[in-house]
């Protein structure tokens, strides 16, 4: 069985995000999106059951490839990526088209995603890849039980439901569903020997185009200049007075 | 602009997210039909003011691909060029499927939109709600996923005047369906919301929040961190991936205030924040900030009201 995980390199969330003409500026060194660690963890658990090969696929500026290395350190076997200037500002459908074509080259049976990237946050790419590849999409997985079958618990609006994982499908995994493993020193060293291969965009078919024109970006101003009090034991009184003033008590 | 509003059923009624979009569509005088997808038997969905189709899906089969096929058929038959949907699990799946069929990338996290010279212009959040984009859609179909609470819900009487259609079952069976219990005031419509974060230290301390909520008749919410830690069900998560609330008073207890949390509560009318860390971003949003230990401040409030 071939298992493919989509992963994204993003600017370190601890650093300040800057923009260039509406696009997030991407430094040379980007890190693995934490959201993807959940998908990689599920891929590795399935790898153990099926003795499968796990390929990470990625699209975006590769830079120092730190994020891709981090995916390999967790235990993925190899990485394929597309890095092409013409994809700057690609919309979710273009991204899904590229990832679908990459998944085809890996002959993937199962393709796994986080539910949404931390930076773009569109939350539509897994489902779009499913539709491109004409596979079922089991979205918003919040738990996995691996025995004879693989049972997936889906998050729903009102609670949850379970399904048995089909032989071929797309999965999207929510944060908190599994506990991503931490690589040890040996894993980190082993990752250096694993292949990271660049795929030329020109070798893939593009089945989408840019239909979204960027007009403007604004950073949200959140400063309210409210009143701040340091509690010296009686701040509770201020809260109660305020609640009375607001007529909630 | 011929518009389809993709709706959802909750508790046998049109969801509030759907009613919010209908209100906005009325404001913009859009020519719209509503297509609702749900598994309830006889929900109250219809209205004399718009045409409604109900795609009844099976609660025992994962059939979203077939539902999307049906939606595509309706879009083509009715010459729809604008699709509006609340940004929920089900609608995100369906709109994403449709985007491939229609060759039009959707815009996610939309908080407002307008039509200018025949084009749809959206205001949408990016990067966890830290920034907003203005985007012009240049394709023949425009697909929008709209964040809840972006507009006020329309107040209309709902009836059972609608067409029902069904789709075939897929090979994927659904089992062990769990509905999370709802009790007390609900997050989406309570006038007061009290939310807990990591600063509550351990799950047992949530009883302090429950006591205060009982006294104020408030709903209880939480951050993603404590929901992931299993202290609260997902249905109580406030933030980017959880619920959006706009109560009269929001009390943030032991919450640092990551942007992803702020997106879900920043439009509350009055925000009170209690946190040990004076540098916590939540204080930027607060109308009243108390720098102090939540675990000592809350019991004193409880004892004195």
Strand and helix map with partners:
The complex is a heterodimer of chains A (249) and B (305).
Chain A (H helix, E strand, L loop, with lengths): L1 E5 L2 E2 L8 E2 L2 E2 L6 E2 L1 H17 L2 E7 L6 H9 L3 E5 L9 H14 L4 E5 L10 H9 L3 E10 L3 E6 L3 E6 L4 E5 L11 H7 L4 E3 L13 E8 L7 E4 L4 H11 L4
Parallel strand pairs in A: 1-6, 1-8, 6-7, 7-13, 8-12, 9-12
Antiparallel strand pairs in A: 2-5, 3-4, 9-10, 10-11
Helix pairs in contact in A: 2-5, 3-4
Chain B lengths: L1 E9 L2 E2 L1 H12 L3 E8 L12 E6 L7 H14 L4 E5 L2 H14 L4 E10 L2 E8 L4 E7 L4 E5 L16 E4 L8 E5 L12 E5 L9 H11 L2 E4 L1 H5 L20 E5 L5 H4 L7 E6 L6 H4 L2 E4 L2 H11 L1
Parallel strand pairs in B: 1-3, 1-5, 3-4, 4-10, 5-9, 6-9, 12-13, 12-14, 14-15, 15-16
Antiparallel strand pairs in B: 1-2, 6-7, 7-8
Helix pairs in contact in B: 2-3, 4-8
Structural description of this entry:
The complex is a heterodimer of chains A (249) and B (305). Chain A has 6 helices and 15 strands. In chain A, 27% of the residues lie in helices and 29% in strands. In chain A, the strands form 3 sheets. In chain A, strands 11-10-9-12-8-1-6-7-13 form a 9-stranded mixed sheet, with helices on both faces. Chain A has a two-stranded antiparallel sheet with strand order 2-5. In chain A, strands 3-4 form a two-stranded antiparallel sheet. Chain B is of the alpha/beta class and 305 residues long. In chain B, helix 7 (282-285) links the parallel strand 15 and strand 16. In chain B, the strands form 2 sheets. In chain B, strands 1, 2, 3, 4, 5, 6, 7, 8, 9 and 10 form a 10-stranded mixed sheet that branches. A 5-stranded parallel sheet of chain B has the order 13-12-14-15-16. The model of chain B has no long low-confidence stretch (mean pLDDT 94). The chains are: A alpha/beta (249), B alpha/beta (305). At the A-B interface, helix 3, helix 4, strand 9, strand 11 and strand 14 of A face helix 2, helix 3, strand 6, strand 7 and strand 8 of B. Strand 11 of chain A pairs antiparallel with strand 11 of chain B, so a sheet runs across the interface.
């Amino acid at each position: 069985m071939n298992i493919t995980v989509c992963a994204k390199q993003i600017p370190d969330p601890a650093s300040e995000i800057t923009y260039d003409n509406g696009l997030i500026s991407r430094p040379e060194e980007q890190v693995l999106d934490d959201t993807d660690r959940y998908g990689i963890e599920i891929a590795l658990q399935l790898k153990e059951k099926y003795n499968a090969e796990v390929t990470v696929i990625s699209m975006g500026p590769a830079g120092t490839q730190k994020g891709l290395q981090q995916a390999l350190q967790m235990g993925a076997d190899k990485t394929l990526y597309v890095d092409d200037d013409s994809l700057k500002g690609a919309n979710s459908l273009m991204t899904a088209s590229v990832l679908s074509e990459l998944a085809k080259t890996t002959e993937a049976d199962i393709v796994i995603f986080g539910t949404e990237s931390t930076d773009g946050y569109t939350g539509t790419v897994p489902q779009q890849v499913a539709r491109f590849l004409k596979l079922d999409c089991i979205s918003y997985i919040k738990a996995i039980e691996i025995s004879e079958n693989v049972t997936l618990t889906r998050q729903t609006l009102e609670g949850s439901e379970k399904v048995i994982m089909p032989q071929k499908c797309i999965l999207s995994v929510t944060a908190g569903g599994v506990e991503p493993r931490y690589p040890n020193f040996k894993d980190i060293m082993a990752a250096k020997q694993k292949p990271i291969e660049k795929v030329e965009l020109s070798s893939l078919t593009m089945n989408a185009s840019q239909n979204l024109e960027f007009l403007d970006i604004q950073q949200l101003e959140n400063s309210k200049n409210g009143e701040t009090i340091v509690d010296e034991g009686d701040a509770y009184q201020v809260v109660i007075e305020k609640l009375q003033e607001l007529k909630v008590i | 602009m011929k518009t389809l509003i993709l709706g959802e059923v909750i508790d046998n009624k049109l969801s509030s997210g759907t009613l919010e979009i209908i209100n906005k569509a009325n404001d913009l005088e859009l020519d719209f039909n509503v297509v609702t997808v749900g598994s309830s038997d006889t929900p109250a969905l219809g209205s004399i003011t718009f045409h409604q189709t109900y795609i009844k899906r099976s609660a025992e089969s994962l059939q979203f691909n077939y539902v999307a096929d049906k939606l595509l058929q309706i879009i083509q038959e009715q010459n729809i060029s604008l699709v509006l949907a609340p940004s929920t699990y089900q609608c995100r799946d369906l709109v994403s499927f449709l985007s491939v069929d229609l060759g039009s990338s959707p815009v996610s996290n939309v908080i407002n939109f307008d039509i200018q010279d025949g084009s749809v212009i959206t205001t949408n959040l990016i990067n966890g709600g830290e920034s907003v984009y203005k985007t012009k859609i240049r394709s023949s179909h425009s697909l929008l996923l709209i964040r809840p609470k972006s507009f006020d819900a329309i107040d209309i009487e709902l009836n059972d005047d609608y067409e029902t259609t069904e789709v075939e079952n897929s090979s994927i069976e659904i089992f062990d369906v769990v509905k999370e219990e709802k009790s007390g005031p609900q997050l989406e419509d309570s006038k007061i919301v009290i939310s807990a974060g990591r600063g509550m230290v351990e799950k047992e301390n949530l009883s302090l929040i429950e006591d205060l909520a009982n006294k104020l008749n408030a709903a209880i919410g939480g951050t993603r961190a404590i929901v992931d830690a299993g202290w609260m069900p997902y249905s109580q998560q406030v933030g980017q991936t959880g619920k959006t609330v706009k109560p009269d008073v929001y009390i943030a207890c032991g919450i640092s205030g990551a942007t992803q949390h702020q997106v879900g509560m920043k439009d509350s009318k009055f925000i009170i924040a209690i946190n040990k860390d004076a540098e916590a971003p939540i204080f930027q949003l607060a109308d009243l900030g108390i720098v102090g230990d939540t675990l000592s401040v809350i019991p004193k409030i409880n004892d004195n009201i």
